[in-house]
């Protein structure tokens, strides 16, 4: 069964969260999503204790999919909608940031409630594309008002850096979690954010742990990757800037050696390494189908020895960490990390 942790008072989550970006329209560059198989995967995951799901207002179709999943849970399952946790996001379009006000925010939150068929949103993770456009603090207060009104249970952030996260905390916004990219490819959170989260009781929820599937046996010995989806496009960029192709291949071999030792897969070692870091509450693993569900149920069947954790850390210390704070390159005008992102998806 999946390990659990208390994210907030009386609110627990599974330490591996089922990510739903992979199910949104526009994520895939080639293959199509089979909804029936996805529902099968959701049931299998929830029954194995992987009860927490991560979606977003801008991941087209995913909040509705989770709403449909709950309808299925109501009829003929041992689990009920109350047994699952749905983490969504509030990501106002960059073109609208200067117009965001209470009524706009409430409209988006009400839309998420309707799509998810929920009375209250378990966790709303707030994202703000551009700190130079004022309004993020006011919007966070509006989310707090909606929490007080009973529409939101917990407030989190996503892709915030340490400075702006601390601004929120100092302003009295009760932030329970911060969702950021953290993997053996991208260790920017280790510079400052992770320590800040630890000392302020904020839980880090990590995405990118498997780098869109690049952390898998299948890439050992290959000389290039033809990306299948938008995650892979992004993580190839990250890998090229940090490990480089040679370092990536060496890392795969190292992780595979450890995987054989524990009789698990390379992806499990990559995940376990991240969730073993102090301050990390959970890792989010993208689900596209039922293919990996059975294997991934083994993630909690073993513990990484400290010597193996140390060996991976030692290996990574030979390579450069991405420049800046978490999500800083993604916010920088002209950067290739920013150029691949879509920032106006909410009003579609
Ligand atoms: N806040 C944000 O800005 C943000 C950004 C990105 C993602 N996220 C969240 O994080 C989630 C994860 O997204 P991600 O882009 O970081 O992807 P990821 O979780 O690093 O990669 C997911 C892919 O890994 C592969 N995989 C899964 N289990 C595996 C296993 N046991 N062995 C080998 N491969 C395995 C699958 O690829 P195949 O299907 O190809 O086999 C799957 O589609 C998203 O769904 C979303 O919820 C949030």
Automatic annotation (TrEMBL):
Stored InterPro entries: AKR, NAD(P)_OxRdtase_dom_sf, NADP_OxRdtase_dom
Molecular function GO terms recorded: oxidoreductase activity
Domain NADP-dependent oxidoreductase: 16-315
Gene3D superfamilies, per the entry: NADP-dependent oxidoreductase domain
Name of the featured protein: Predicted oxidoreductase
Taxonomic placement: Bacteria, Bacillati, Bacillota, Bacilli, Bacillales
């Amino acid at each position: 069964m999946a390990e659990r942790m208390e994210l907030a008072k009386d609110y627990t989550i599974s330490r591996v969260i089922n990510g739903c970006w992979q199910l949104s329209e526009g994520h895939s560059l080639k293959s199509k999503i089979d909804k029936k198989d996805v529902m099968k995967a959701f049931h299998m995951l929830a029954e194995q204790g992987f009860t927490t799901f991560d979606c977003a207002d801008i991941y087209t179709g995913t909040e509705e999919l989770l709403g449909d999943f709950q309808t299925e849970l109501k009829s003929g399952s041992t689990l009920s909608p109350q047994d699952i946790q749905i983490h969504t996001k509030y990501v106002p379009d960059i073109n609208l940031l200067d117009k965001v006000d209470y009524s706009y925010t409430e409209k988006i939150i009400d839309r998420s409630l309707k799509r998810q068929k929920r009375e209250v949103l378990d966790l709303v993770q707030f994202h703000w594309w551009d700190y130079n456009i004022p309004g993020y603090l006011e919007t966070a207060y509006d989310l707090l008002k909606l929490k007080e009104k009973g529409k939101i249970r917990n407030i989190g952030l996503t892709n915030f850096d340490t400075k702006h996260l601390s601004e929120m905390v100092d302003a009295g916004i009760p932030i329970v979690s911060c969702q950021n990219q953290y993997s053996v490819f991208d260790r920017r959170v280790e510079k400052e954010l992770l320590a800040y989260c630890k000392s302020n009781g904020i839980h880090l929820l990590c995405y990118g742990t498997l780098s869109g599937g690049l952390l898998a046996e299948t890439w050992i010995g290959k000389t290039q990757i033809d990306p299948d989806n938008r995650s892979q496009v992004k993580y190839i960029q990250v890998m090229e800037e940090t490990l480089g192709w040679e370092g990536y291949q060496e890392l795969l071999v190292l992780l595979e050696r450890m995987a054989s030792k524990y009789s698990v897969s390379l992806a499990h070692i990559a995940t376990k390494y991240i969730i073993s870091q102090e301050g990390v509450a959970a890792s989010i693993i993208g689900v596209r189908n039922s293919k990996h569900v059975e294997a991934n149920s083994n993630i909690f069947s073993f513990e990484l020895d400290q010597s193996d954790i140390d060996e991976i850390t030692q290996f990574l210390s030979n390579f450069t960490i991405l420049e800046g704070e978490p999500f800083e390159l993604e916010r920088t005008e002209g950067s290739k990390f920013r150029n691949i992102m879509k920032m106006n998806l909410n009003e579609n």
